[in-house]
Amino acid sequence: MTGPRVHRLANGVRVVCDPLPGWQTVALSVVAGRGARFEDAAHSGWSHLLEHMVFKGAGGRSAKQIVEVIEAEGGHINAATGYERTSFQVRALKHGLDLGSSVISDLVLRPTMDAADLAREKQVVGQEIAEAADTPDDLVFELAQAAAFAGQPLGRPILGTVQSIKAATPQTLGAWRSALYAPETLVVSAAGAVDEDELLRLAERDFGAAAGEGLAAAEPAAFAGGTSTVAKRLEQANLVFLLPAVGVKDPDYFALRLLAEILGGGMASRLFQEAREARGLAYAIDAYSETYADTGILGVFAGCDAKDAGELAEVTAQQIRLLADPVGDVELSRGKAQLKGSMFMGRESALARAEQAAGQVLLFGETLDPEAVAAEVDTVTPGQIADLVAKILAPARSATAILGPKASLPAAERFEQALFGV
User: Fold this and answer.
1) Residue 373 to residues 24, 163, 254, 340, Cα–Cα distance (Å)
2) Which residues, 6+ apart, have CB-to-CB distance to 126 below 8 Å?
3) How many CB atoms lie within 10 A of CB 171?
4) Amino acid 75: pLDDT
5) Strands 237-245 and 296-304
6) What Å distances lie between residue 326 and 259, 269, 383, CA to CA?
């Protein structure tokens, strides 16, 4: 089966076409390979603020008209800012590609940037920052991330701070836009009911004149580690444990994904069975991996009663240490099946396919064959996972965040003692 095809416009913009015969909808994703990781402290949150601002007016349309023109044709428009990329997405009926491309190009290249709109949007983002601070299961992740990558862009919240976004003006934010959405960082990706010739024509029309130099490459990240505990009157304690792992380009990437799956990826996982089913310590407990271009983390999140936090921390550490011994064939096979299942199920969404293709082009310069990826998952051995656990534990560094009643806070120390014997 022929996979997505990648093209490059003369100005460096890359175009990915993934036609799906018989589909009645199309998804368009325009992704810039830059995000919050490329900000210094003074510009913290500017990428997210910019993503908000372009929707206030662009290409002669007002904020209301931007949404109305898409929805009038049965479509939906959205955007998202991450650490390493910013994406704009339109989902539409099969004849909506022309309009979607036109609107997104206006957002990316021709936003109005009105001073009054900016003042109001700073207030909106300020409320978003306050809401995150008031939401325990958001705040605890920010605390853990800040401890893991202290003093680095990956350790700062994507939303920034009220102080950092306050400094932005229409002119300085406009200059930030030119660098953030520079043509060599842009990928125009469409999947579903899309014709390749039409997509290339629209990409040239709407993005072929984009110009400017992008932000410099991000500095390498280093896992610092540390503990962040905040006492707060809550019904439950919120716990996050992070360990240094590998990046998306590392040969052990799939071993990391399988490690997280086996540790706490589902109801059959070790943490779920031991912490929840066998001991009743937590209703919710999950393990996950977060990977960036050059580094990554293995994480565990749990919510529990304050009196159980210490024991839960020790159980988590014990289960991580046990994975230094090779896993059994049945457990590994189940992890592989779950990982491949989620990968192929995700590809049944046109938007997910368009986003995935854009991300792969940004990272690898090409799209990856799903069957080849699945085959690579199948090559992971028990020994490879055990070796990765040893590598993760070797620095004896973790980042722990505890948010909840005072009685839960010693769980941070109990986790480190159980994991590293210190």
Assistant:
1) 28, 44, 9, 9
2) 162, 165
3) 10
4) 97
5) antiparallel
6) 11, 15, 6
CATH of the domain at 154: 3.30.830.10
> How much is the pLDDT for 182?
96
Q: Do 92 and 75 form a contact (C-beta atoms < 8 A)?
A: yes
Q: What is the pLDDT of residue 1?
A: 44
pLDDT in tens, 52-84: 999 999 999 999 999 999 999 999 999 999 999
Q: Which residues pair with 404 in a beta bridge?
A: 231
Domain final residue pick, 207, 235, 265: 207
Say which amino acid occupies 110: R
For residue 19, tell me if it sits in a domain.
yes
- Give me the pLDDT at residue 421, please: 87
Over 164-213, what HEC string results? HHHCCCHHHHHHHHHHHCCHHHEEEEEEECCCHHHHHHHHHHHHCCCCCC
Q: Are residues 143 and 241 in the same domain?
A: no
Domain shared by 307 and 172, yes or no: no
The stretch 119-126 carries a mean pLDDT of 97
Query: Same structural domain for residues 174 and 320?
Result: no
3-state helix, strand, coil in the chain (%, to 5): 50, 20, 30
Residue 220 lies in a domain: no
For residue 143, give the amino acid letter.
L
The one-letter amino acid at 79: A
Going by the DSSP 8-state scheme, the letter that residue 36 receives in this structure is G
Each residue's pLDDT tens digit, 228-268: 999 999 999 999 999 999 999 999 999 999 999 999 999 99
pTM of the model: 0.95
What range does the domain containing 362 cover? 226-420
- Pair 248, 386 in one domain: yes
Which residue has tokens 């929805």? 71
Return the CA Rg of the chain: 23
Residue with tokens 């293995």: 298
Strands 76-81 and 86-93: antiparallel
β-pairing, 25-32 vs 14-19, is unpaired
pLDDT, tens digit, 9 for 90 and up, residues 354-412: 999 999 999 999 999 999 999 999 999 999 999 999 999 999 999 999 999 999 999 99
From CA 291, how far away is CA 282, in angstroms rounded? 26
